[in-house]
Specification:
The chain is of the alpha+beta class. 37% of the residues lie in helices and 34% in strands. The chain contains three helices and 21 strands. The chain has helices at 7-39, 107-167, 173-231, and strands at 42-44, 50-52, 54-70, 73-77, 82-87, 94-95, 100-104, 233-235, 240-245, 252-253, 258-263, 268-275, 287-292, 295-304, 312-319, 332-349, 358-366, 369-380, 384-389, 396-398, 410-414. The strands form three sheets. A six-stranded antiparallel barrel has the order 3-12-15-14-13-16. Strands 4-11-9-6 form a four-stranded antiparallel beta sheet, with no helix packed on it. It has a four-stranded antiparallel beta sheet with strand order 8-7-5-10. The longest helix has 61 residues, at 107-167.
Length: 415
């Protein structure tokens, strides 16, 4: 038989029911708030990179790609057409100055050297012979001139005697005329002989100069052959590292063929390339920043190749510290050539968002929100980008890639 519940039991059950409903309601509200927070667009502050807008010096630069190469590198070529007999060194070995690298076959060169020595000696003998012959001929003419001068003085005396005899009646006018005629004829002969002497002397001098020139040419050729003999002993020009060597023993090599490359691997420079659109900004003497890993090295632009190849301009960077421990041959580096400086420029950090001067949509953090704002950016260097319009000093800007949220205008920033 059922009994009627007491009022106290009914009240107690009502309270339990109300508490249960209240608990369910609170839980539902909390779940809804959680879902709203989940569904609302937002980002975590720890997942983004930010930069504060500040004022400072901006060294404007253009970027290029570069490669570390030896500061000095010398290609040794074959001075003659010959063949390789022996190779004494291997690539990568340390070389001392004058150390022999390759032995070449010099049999043909030796024969040419001996032949040129004989030709040089013959030309020397011919030059001496011509000089002695010229001196002898000129000496004969000088002697003949002295004899003829003595004849003229004698005939002059005879002419005076005839004139004196005629004045005292012991001579005749015909004898005087005969003496005068002989005297004038001898004077003309002497004049002709002196002219012949001058011409002979000039011709002898000209012949001597021609033969001396011929001899000097032969001497230079002989010296050149001797130098070729010396160069044919392929030696290291200085203390260096042997970068490459033709080690094919017995192979024939033509004159001018590369036999070895020696490099100074203790000092380096940068061989860089940049688009020809920046050609007017790459000038010799411009300051340069070179980034290799976490290291930053300074230098200046050295030689700039005036020609363009495949749309690129090649130039050399001379480093202030060209023996830095981080430098390795062939290492790829980032090169930044500074071409202008702006003082007190508004700037933000440079990252992958920057594609060059122009307008950008950047996110500015304001409290717990990020607001998208259109900003005009200018020139840059590898650290900073110039802010022309849209930002103020002290503002915080997101510099991470935000392209996935480009349709949004406002985001919640969760810290």
């Amino acid at each position: 038989m059922n009994r009627k519940l007491s009022p106290e039991v009914i009240k107690k059950r009502k309270r339990k029911f109300i508490l249960k409903l209240a608990f369910i309601g609170i839980a539902t509200i909390m779940v809804m708030i959680f879902l709203v927070n989940i569904l609302r667009s937002g980002i975590s502050y720890d997942s983004i990179y930010t930069s504060e807008v500040d004022k400072g010096t901006l060294e404007i630069s253009v970027s290029a790609t570069g490669k570390v190469v030896p500061l000095s590198e010398e290609v040794i070529v074959s001075p003659v057409a010959t063949r390789i007999l022996e190779v004494y060194k291997k690539a990568g070995e340390q070389l001392e100055e004058g150390e022999v690298i390759i032995k070449l076959d010099l049999e043909t060169v030796n024969a040419d050297v001996e032949k040129q020595k004989d030709e040089l000696a013959m030309k020397r003998y011919q030059l001496d012979q011509q000089r002695r012959a010229s001196e002898s001929q000129l000496a004969d003419l000088e002697m003949q001139i002295e004899i003829d001068e003595m004849k003229i003085r004698r005939m002059e005396i005879l002419l005076r005697n005839e004139v004196f005899l005629d004045s005292i009646g012991a001579g005749t006018s015909d004898k005087i005329k005969q003496a005068e005629l002989e005297y004038e004829v001898e004077k003309l002969k002497l004049k002709q002989l002196k002219l012949k002497y001058i011409n002979q002397k000039q011709n002898a001098e000209a012949d001597r100069k021609v033969m001396e020139l011929d001899y000097n040419i032969a001497l230079k050729n002989s010296d050149l052959k001797n130098k070729m003999m010396s160069d044919a002993q392929i030696r290291s020009p200085r203390t260096n590292i042997l970068k490459w060597v033709n080690d094919q023993v017995g192979v024939r090599v033509p004159e001018g063929a590369e036999l070895a490359i020696v490099s100074d691997l203790s000092h380096f420079k940068i061989d860089a390339d940049i688009s020809d659109s920046y050609g007017d900004k790459i000038l010799s003497g411009n300051k340069v920043i070179v980034k290799t890993g976490n290291q930053e090295l300074t230098g200046v632009v050295g030689n700039v190749v005036p020609s363009v190849k495949d749309g690129m301009i090649n130039f050399t960077v001379l480093l202030d510290n060209n023996e830095h421990e981080s430098l390795r041959p062939g290492l790829k580096v980032e090169v930044y050539v500074i071409n202008a400086i702006q003082e007190e420029a508004l700037r933000i950090a440079n990252r992958s968002y920057y594609k060059g001067p122009g307008e950008y949509d950047l996110w500015v953090i304001q409290g717990q929100e990020a607001i998208k704002r259109q900003v005009e950016l200018g020139e840059s260097n590898y650290r900073y980008v110039e802010v022309k319009e849209g930002l103020n000093a002290g503002e915080i800007v997101i510099i991470s890639d935000m392209s996935a949220l480009k349709e949004k205008n406002k985001l919640k920033v969760r810290k």
